Amino acid sequence: MAVAEPRTTTRRRTPRVDAIRNREAIVEAAAEVLAEQGAAVDVREIARRSGVGMGTLYRHFPKKEDLVHTVLRRDFMTWAESARQAAIDAEDPWAALTTFYQQALTGYARHRAIMENLALTLAEPDLEGIHQLRLVIEQLCARACATGLLRPGVTTDDLLLLLVSLGHAVQITDECRPRMWNRLLHISLDGLRADHREPLPCDSTVAGVSAP
Amino acid sequence: MAVAEPRTTTRRRTPRVDAIRNREAIVEAAAEVLAEQGAAVDVREIARRSGVGMGTLYRHFPKKEDLVHTVLRRDFMTWAESARQAAIDAEDPWAALTTFYQQALTGYARHRAIMENLALTLAEPDLEGIHQLRLVIEQLCARACATGLLRPGVTTDDLLLLLVSLGHAVQITDECRPRMWNRLLHISLDGLRADHREPLPCDSTVAGVSAP
DNA sequence: TCCCATGCGGAGCACTTGCTCCGCATAAGT
DNA sequence: ACTTATGCGGAGCAAGTGCTCCGCATGGGA
């Protein structure tokens, strides 16, 4: 069964080399453009930058969404990987947490398409890379919590929402007031420390608002 | 000179009543739609809701931008006014600050067009309403600072950026995790209190990673 | 070298959206 | 009632964008 027919129905198993090259060029160009301009970009711009025609682009990625997802999965994976590494290298749990935010906000908050989709970490982390990132933050949270440095009751979702929130602040201030967000980060991190009088409101951690 | 010509060139000083009615209907409908869907909405939708034709809409507001600005000015003014009132009513400066954030995030973070434009408070507060809102926050900041409750070095811009940042968090979590942002607000407000060891980084540098 | 399955390019279609144009309706002054 | 400046409606234009179609080029097996 697994024997390939010799001549009549020669199914090619591997794509042609130019097709592979083109596919990579498309992803590369798309990554650039998505980082710069977000997912609302014109598909023609991606085709232009990758030196490829529309037909080629749409054969490799039948929907714009397919291309966007491919790129986002790749970039989120890269991010998660580097974040995990940085977290491992860090001396103590608290340093790991602060370093993570610093790195994330310095390096990835400029990636517009990533920031646009980061909110999905909270709703539906279906994209593989997003899930990986979530796992890293979960670990950071657990470690900082275990050492008693993190304010009791702070959850992974809190840290994620803070990331999304600050990511937006970075995008807003990036051009007109560079690194102004750094002050906000300090403020938020201090609010995350354990030395506070009152506990956090457990408002609706689990969709809490009482049902009608 | 100021005498109006009697019949040949009767310049009407006041517009026709139906024109006034239409204009108001347009603004009303636009305010609704902009709050729900943001400024990227189709102009036809506004015309439809206000029961008016495209021609009418574009005579009153030659550019879509004109209509949007008119609505935003109105809504920002309303917001600033109610915020000012609430701040005056508050018992102490800190309560005024927390109440402001609560009210802003509960009531105005759902206004999509307002949130989209709130970032302008930091860059170019040319819209009159935005400037008014900035003044309110300036007062809140000054009062809380004077009583020593606010962390030294915190500026009006910090409070504004926090507002923008949290506003985004509200929009993100509004549907899937209602009021989850409340926890983030508590964290941030605690970070704003005066009882912290280290001072805030004075804007740029700090941030560890050395400049080239 | 020859052949053809596989892949390529980009004009063009379908739809959206900001804005205009112009024939028709009517408020309001006489 | 009559007139007309003022205002109205909505079809339609122009530009942008996702996606398709089809004639042509070519990698790679023989």
Automatic annotation (TrEMBL), chains A, B:
GO molecular function term, any single one: transcription cis-regulatory region binding
Alphabetical UniProt keywords: DNA-binding, Transcription, Transcription regulation
A Pfam family annotated for this UniProt entry: TetR_N
Family matches, as InterPro entries: Homeodomain-like_sf, HTH-type_TetR-like_transc_reg, HTH_TetR, Tet_transcr_reg_TetR-rel_C_sf, TetR_SbtR-like_C
Ranges of the DNA-binding region feature: 42-61
Residue ranges of domain HTH tetR-type in the record: 20-79
Full protein name: AcrR family transcriptional regulator
Species in which this protein is naturally found: Nonomuraea endophytica
